[in-house]
Structure formats: structure tokens, C-alpha cells
Specification:
Length: 284
């Protein structure tokens, strides 16, 4: 289990009716440097080899500071949606990124497979079908609308929905905190943008939000699957730092000597950036 410092105060920007805004310092372990900057009383500051009280709470500068225990994958996925967002996502989700050239303002809403509306769900499915149905059909995976809808309703799946001022969906990213080959990862299931909003920095922004979830959840890496023939997507992900994962399928030589190339590639990107600066707090 891991610990994180969370400050809870009155909301200055409502993202949910009558819900308090929550800021999470993006640091997996509580360090003396962070608590000193926040003015935490010295007797409450964690020291090396000292386990902090997961329920510790105090008031500093008008904020209520609480030490929370960071959950593992199963516990993280069991969190209520608003708690999940507070723990793993930045307070502000909306674009536009500084380098974006979008012609109109967009907003991003965060939903789960249980909370997404039927209208939004259908819009997401239509984006997949219009952009990728043929690629699925030509691959070893195959295209099945029924199976794709079932996948989109997996309980632990989360959605980042890109909407315009009229609340119409122009793109989305779906992801899940999960295990891949025994390792904790954040897996991108789908990333789709309508042609009208492509090449505006919005896909990169959605990917950065998903990676923020992975980093705050302290998973090992971010992963995704891309069709081998999709050169545009491969170039896009390479530009974000993704490379072929060790578990990506390799070409197979058939009995007749023909080499069968895989129809998809698994890409990954390491999210472990804290290194040895983190100090595990244990009993002592």
C-alpha cells in the first residue's frame, strides 16, 4: 500500500453539484519536503522508517490535510467515480493544451462504463465503428458490434469524453487500471477523434490525462494496442514516447515457410519516473 497527501477545501470551481474540490499533490509518498512546504506540524511529519497514520488529519492554511493510503488496482477500481477522479486525475481536465490550435472550446467529462449515458455511449461506439470497423474486420481480432459493446461496458473501464459547447461528442479515450502479464498498468482501450478535431493537440491531451492516472496510481507503464497497418497512429504514439512492448506478438513462420506478420502491435511507455527519491514508510 502507498500513501499520498490530499488537501480538501471549499471548491473554487464546481465540477459536481455540492461537491468539494480536491487537490492531490502528485507524489506517491509523503516526503518531509512536501509537508514542510505545506506547514504541517512537525510532530505529524513522517520520518524515515516511520509508518504514518492513514487517518491522520489536520488543518493548515484553511485546508484540511489528510494522509490517505493509496490503493492497489482492485481497490482503485472499486472507488466511487468522484473519489477516483480526485485521487488520480488533475483538478482541471479541459483543454486546450498550450500548443493546441483548436478553433473552438472543448470540454472533457470523466465517466465510467456505469455512468456514461446511452447517448454518449452510442456516440462513442459510432466513432469506433466509423474509424476502425474495417481494420478490426481485416485483423485477427475480427469485428463484432456485440462483442465491442460488451467490452465497452467492462465494469472497470473509464471514459474521457471530448465534447463541444453543445455537449456533442467529438472524441473519447477509454482506459483501465489493470494487470498485464502480472504487472500493474494503465491500458488504453480506445482513442478516437472525429476528423474535424484531429491534429489539434486533443489526442495528445487525452493521452496525457490517462498517463497522469497511471502515474498517480503508481503503475509500471501505460499500454495500448494498435493495428500494424495504421501508420498514422504508430507515428502518433511513437511521438508520445511509446515503443513496442516485449509482449507484442512476433512474426510466425508457418509450416509452408510463409512468414505470417501480426495484425496488431502492443506498445508501452514506462511511467516510473520517481526513482529512488521515494521513500517507503514502514513500521519501525
Amino acid at each position: 500500500m502507498r500513501t499520498q497527501l490530499v488537501a480538501v477545501g471549499e471548491s473554487r470551481r464546481k465540477y459536481h453539484d455540492r461537491v468539494k474540490d480536491i487537490w492531490c499533490w502528485k507524489k506517491p509518498y509523503i516526503s518531509g519536503r512536501i509537508v514542510h512546504r505545506l506547514g504541517v506540524p512537525a510532530h505529524l511529519q513522517p520520518r524515515k522508517r516511520r509508518k504514518v497514520d492513514a487517518q491522520a488529519s489536520w488543518h493548515v492554511r484553511g485546508l484540511r490535510l489528510t494522509i490517505l493510503t493509496m490503493p492497489h488496482i482492485e481497490d482503485a477500481n472499486a472507488l466511487p467515480l468522484i473519489t477516483y477522479r480526485a485521487a488520480f486525475l488533475p483538478t482541471r481536465l479541459d483543454p486546450i493544451p498550450p500548443n493546441a490550435i483548436a478553433q473552438e472550446p472543448y470540454s472533457i467529462s470523466f465517466e465510467s462504463s456505469c455512468t456514461i449515458t446511452a447517448v454518449d455511449f452510442e456516440a462513442c461506439f459510432d466513432l469506433i465503428a466509423s474509424s476502425s470497423a474495417n481494420a478490426y474486420a481485416a485483423s485477427s481480432i475480427g469485428w463484432s458490434p456485440v462483442n465491442k459493446c460488451k467490452e465497452m461496458k467492462l465494469p472497470d473501464l473509464r471514459y474521457l469524453l471530448l465534447k463541444d459547447a453543445t455537449k456533442q461528442i467529438h472524441g473519447f479515450l477509454s482506459f483501465m487500471l489493470t494487470y498485464e502479464d502480472g504487472r500493474e498498468v494503465v491500458y488504453c482501450y480506445e482513442l478516437h477523434l472525429s476528423p474535424a478535431v484531429q491534429r489539434q493537440g486533443l489526442g495528445k491531451h487525452l493521452m496525457s490525462l490517462m498517463e497522469t492516472v497511471g502515474m498517480n496510481a503508481e503503475v509500471e507503464k501505460s499500454m495500448l494496442t494498435v493495428f500494424a497497418e495504421n501508420d498514422t497512429a504508430l507515428k502518433f504514439y511513437k511521438g508520445l514516447g511509446y515503443s513496442k512492448d516485449d509482449y507484442s506478438p512476433e512474426p510466425r513462420k508457418m509450416r509452408n515457410g510463409i512468414v505470417k506478420m501480426p495484425t496488431y502491435i502492443i506498445l508501452s511507455k514506462s511511467l516510473q519516473k520517481w526513482g529512488t527519491d521515494n521513500e517507503e514508510l514502514d513500521d519501525g
